[in-house]
Design goal:
The chain is built from twelve helices and 17 strands. It is α+β, with helices and mostly antiparallel strands and 375 residues long. Strand 13 and strand 14 form a beta hairpin. It is elongated and about 110 Å long. It starts with a helix and ends in a 6-residue tail after the last helix. InterPro entries: KH_dom (IPR004087), KH_dom-like_a/b (IPR015946), KH_NusA_2nd (IPR058582), KH_sf_prok-type (IPR009019), NA-bd_OB-fold (IPR012340), NusA_N_sf (IPR036555), S1_domain (IPR003029), TF_NusA (IPR010213). This is Transcription termination/antitermination protein NusA. Participates in both transcription termination and antitermination.
Amino acid sequence: MNKEFIEALDELEKSKGISKDVIFDALETALVSSFRKNFQTEQNVVVDINRETGDIKLYSQKTVVDEVEDDVNEISLKDAKKISSKYKVGDTVNFEEAPKEYGRIAAQTAKQVVIQKIKDAERERIHDEFIVRQGEIITGQIQRISNKNIFIDMGKVEGIIPPSEQIPNEVYKMGDRLKLVISEIRKTSKGPQIVLSRAKAILVRRLFELEVPEISEGLIDIYSIAREAGSRSKIAVYAKDDSIDPLGACVGQKGQRVNSIVEELNGEKIDIIIYNENPEIFIKNALSPADVVSCEINEEEKSAIAIVPNSQISLAIGKQGQNVRLAARLTTWKIDIHPEDPSTFTGPTSEPYYDADNQEILNDSLIDLFRNDEE
């Protein structure tokens, strides 16, 4: 080790942000391990590196004892006193070692430690860069597909879209360019893994922010989003200024804005709902496209019974309960659907048509009965 090595560490500290002390500490630990491995010894050893000159000192250590039982790691008090009268039982005596070939071993070890520390620093830098970008939208190109995982070229790193973050039934091909959100940064033994998503509700939010200037400028706010990726989303919006029409702004002229988002999501249906502080009005809006006659609100249980025209029961519930399920998620209220006139309702009239707690249809025959009413 020499001054050139110290100068190289100085440069490394400036360019990569790796502390010299971190490298020295790691190097001392690695040199101890290398010594034991290469010289096949059980000696207690320590390594000391001069931080200014780079000079390495290797010491074997022996514990002072009254009676020696381990010649390798112990020294008698009598022999220790010959070295220095200050030693007493329990003290440690250091003996400088200078084995042949140790200089070569030290150089090889130093190289390995520095390379590993550079890799670790680069991984940490990438982790720190992307951890603050969670939820950000990016455009990426599919680089490869392996075991149902999709890998996206992101420059210095590779992003992954696991099956759970893909849109069901969406077809992916090599070279396709996709809009995605950075979902999660995972630390792995091979470095940070950037998990990307096409399925998260936040992707819909980011797409609306891109397409609707009034949202990106803060004139319109997105209150909440409920999404079943690849099938349907509901988004609740409101304007801070009464002069702005939030629904018209989000739809755009001739539906241009919302259609761009639908196209990006490969035909996923999007219902744009007007948020209202009054839960009764908000729930009515959320059950769109069904008309709701009235809403019975239970504030304490945060539940509601929506009274719907008999002819629109299946529309309110939606295919396999999707419409009311999304409405419940959008509003965070439990919602039950009841017919306006049970006496003339030709469908099942027992209990209830939809289980708000478990978000599932209790009477499949209801959907079959009014299938033609569905969207």
